[in-house]
Amino acid sequence: MMHRLLPLLATGLALACSPGSQAGTTTTAQGQQEKTPVTPARHPVSGLEVIDLSVTTGGVRHAFKVEMAATQPDQARGLMFRTELGADEGMLFPSREPMVRSFWMKNTPLSLDIIFIGPDRRIINIAANTTPYSLDSVVSDGPAVAVLELVGGRAAELGIVPGDKVDW
Questions:
Q1: pTM score > 0.90 for this model?
Q2: Closest-CA residue to 127 (of 146, 109, 153)
Q3: 45 inside domain
Q4: Is 41 within the bounds of a domain?
Q5: Ordered DSSP codes for 27-84
Q6: Considering only CA atoms, which of 112, 106, 41 is closest in space to residue 76?
């Protein structure tokens, strides 16, 4: 009986080690590949889903990994109490409908660039280098579909300005 199983085990091992056997795909017994759902990446501190986002400025694309604050409680918490944020990290606050958005820095020890994004996914305005812990409102210059927070000064460092395109 064991001698009959060895060819099957060898075939299974060969399929498991083949290049097509990567995360997100499985190989059936007939050798066909099927896509499997990939578990989204989660931020180790917030537990929020981490997505790819890019800002294109002057023909240059800048890539970021951002936490998606999709729910009202996640948006209310935002980056409060966070003491670290990488240069290519941030948080995205999407809206269901375009609306004037207002943010503050309550309980936020990091200086942030708060970037307001319009319905055309272009930057409306940027509140640069916000003051940590400030209770002053920072407001979009028009209806926004999302707000992106980056570490303070990063937008200027990369030349990101109003009118630049944001994709996620």
A1: no
A2: 153
A3: no
A4: no
A5: E-TTS-EEE-PPPPPB-TTT--BEEEEEEEETTEEEEEEEEE--SHHHHHHTTTT---
A6: 106
Rounded Cα–Cα distance for residues 94 and 120 (Å): 13
Q: What is the DSSP letter of 121?
A: S
Q: What is the pLDDT of residues 75-109, one digit of tens each?
A: 999 999 999 999 999 999 999 999 999 999 999 99
Do 27 and 61 have their domain in common? no
Half-sphere exposure of 86 (CA within 13 A, CB side): 9
Nearby residues of 34 by Cβ (< 8 Å), 6 or more positions away: 25, 26, 27, 28
Q: Is 117 helix (H, G, I), strand (E, B) or coil?
A: strand
Residue 99 falls within a domain, yes or no? yes
**Within 13 Å, how many C-alpha atoms sit on residue 3's CB side?**
0
How far is 61 from 72, CA to CA, in rounded Å? 30
pLDDT of residue 29: 66
For 138, the enclosing helix (H) or strand (E) is: strand 138-139
Asked if 62 and 91 sit in the same domain, the reply is yes
Helix, strand, or coil (residue 18)? coil
Strand partners, 34: 26
CA 112/CA 154 separation, integer angstroms: 8
- Full domain range(s) for residue 14: 2-35
